[in-house]
Amino acid sequence: MTKPLRTGIGVILTAIMLFPVYWMINVSFTRDTDMRADPPHLFPFNGTLEGYRAVLDQQMPYLGTSLIIGLGTVALTLIISAPAGYALAKLRSRGAGVLNFVLLIAQMIPGIIMAMGFYAIYLRAGVLNTVPGLILADSTIAVPFGVLIFTAFMSGIPDELINAAMIDGASRWRTFRSVVLPVSRNAIVTVSLFAFLWAWSDFVFATTLDGGGEYQPITLGIYHYIGNNNQQWNAIMATAVIASIPATLLLIVAQRYVAAGVTAGAVKD
Amino acid sequence: MTTHAETLVRTRGTTRVRRARGPWAAWAFLAPVIIYLVAFYAYPLYRNLDLSLRHYTVRSFVQGDAPFSGLDNYRAVFDDATFLPALLHTMVFTLVSIAFQFAIGLALAVFFTAHFKLSATLRALFLVPWLLPLIVSASTWSWMLNSDSGIVNYALSIVGVEQINWLTSPDWALTSVIIANIWIGIPFNLVILYSGLQTVPGEIYEAAALDGATGWQRFWRVTFPLLRPVSAITLLLGLVYTLKVFDLIWIMTKGGPTDASTTLATWSYRLSFGNLLPEFGPGAAVGNLLILMALFFGLFYIWRQRHD
């Protein structure tokens, strides 16, 4: 196969793969009256911004809540997982093997089951339908992943660097904060990106733990939309387009981190 | 100052001090994650197990004084008319999804190993379905598969296929959610298999080409066998991830119509949260069965990874 031919085929395959994404964007601009047109409008000529106006009018609180939940989840995930990764990578301790094993297992537990346990706990603790409760639950998706990424990354930091800091009189905590963390920037970025994206995309915890909450994330915003006004598909798809922005940004800004994140943990080097 | 002294000793190569002092520092750094895992993993799982072993009503759920009922909830679940269909759908959904995800992902990975113009960009674009929030993918597919106005039925009508009620007919609901799930899972398989292909040394291909192997032979005789460890891991991980798919199915069909696309995950959710009268006990029991299945394949995956 010649190279230009490959590029051509590659473009066609990508176009097929991304057709649903295109369709979402197209429908978000389609007028209500054209929504059930036969044949369907393949391009949003004569389109409308009604859908996006609806998003501005109705979905802003949901988007704001999702942003706060996402940032909160990132902070919590980093605080828990970065020190743990350092300990597992550099401070040999007896339980390390067991802990690694537990973390791998933890990633495999279906979210819906965690949600049920959390529901029972939250109901009695009175944190059901609260944003902090949801942040805490969402962080369980990212913490095991975070520890694995930090462990893998920090194992690559030369011992000499850490020892040098400690000879200069720095405590372990100082060394961690002033030497290890700054050189682990890539790992911090990767973990933060995924923690944010998973919290932003979470539906399982949102619907079980925050279904009656005053502040609800965007995933529930879309879900209520689908349930309530089945006809206004341009508004639903416009919300979906807006909800996809973080994922898109992530891909544009941090492509290499994304691919690294997918493969990390799955395949041993 | 103790740490300073310790380091000095350590740099001189005395390992005894390291053993004596190291663990305490390590445990200080590990304490947050251990407390976290106990409080927010082990405890919810314990609560879930507890739920499945008691007879709950809404009142006793709030007050927490439900009577212990042993394995009654599990017995009730096994006897339920939904159990066998849900188990069957879970198996079909999982196996068909990962078979297609893997085959398509592998074909694309092989296709992308040849470096051509735009190949890196296109490969990155393939990640989009995997990164989108599931509610976005699920609602987009719902509209595309709409019986009257969906683009899929329109495209099929051009080639003379009658209208298919993708989401509302019991014959097609499971197929519909499988199609959407395959689409979501392809990127994951592509990325992992592609990175696996990168580790196959180029000289092996050159040698095979010198021996006169065709592209097809090269794939089956050289690439595929060398890729077997990575393939096994991809498939096992895919299995674990697909078993727990809930959002997609719930958003597209709610497991319906009449259980036609109900899996263990959606059934468990419906029992606990989907009805006016929640059945937390049976819901938790179904959930625990799902954990057992995921753990079975999960442990197999870890074992595989350790032995490669």
From TrEMBL, chain A:
Residues 63-254 form the ABC transmembrane type-1 domain. GO terms for biological process: transmembrane transport. GO terms for cellular component: plasma membrane. The chain crosses the membrane at residues 7-25, 67-89, 101-122, 134-157, 178-200, 233-254. Pfam families: BPD_transp_1. It is a multi-pass membrane protein. It comes from the Bacteria. It is found in: Cell membrane. The keyword Transport applies. Its main location: membrane. Keywords: Cell membrane, Membrane, Sugar transport, Transmembrane, Transmembrane helix, Transport. Belongs to the binding-protein-dependent transport system permease family. This is Multiple sugar transport system permease protein.
From TrEMBL, chain B:
The chain crosses the membrane at residues 24-43, 86-112, 124-144, 172-194, 226-243, 280-303. One of its GO terms (cellular component) is plasma membrane. Its main location: membrane. One of its GO terms (biological process) is transmembrane transport. It is a multi-pass membrane protein. Residues 87-301 form the ABC transmembrane type-1 domain. The lineage of its organism: Bacteria, Bacillati, Actinomycetota, Actinomycetes, Micromonosporales. PANTHER family: BLR7065 PROTEIN (PTHR43005), SPERMIDINE_PUTRESCINE TRANSPORT SYSTEM PERMEASE PROTEIN (PTHR43005:SF1). This is Multiple sugar transport system permease protein. Pfam families: BPD_transp_1 (PF00528). Keywords: Cell membrane, Membrane, Sugar transport, Transmembrane, Transmembrane helix, Transport. It is found in: Cell membrane. Belongs to the binding-protein-dependent transport system permease family.
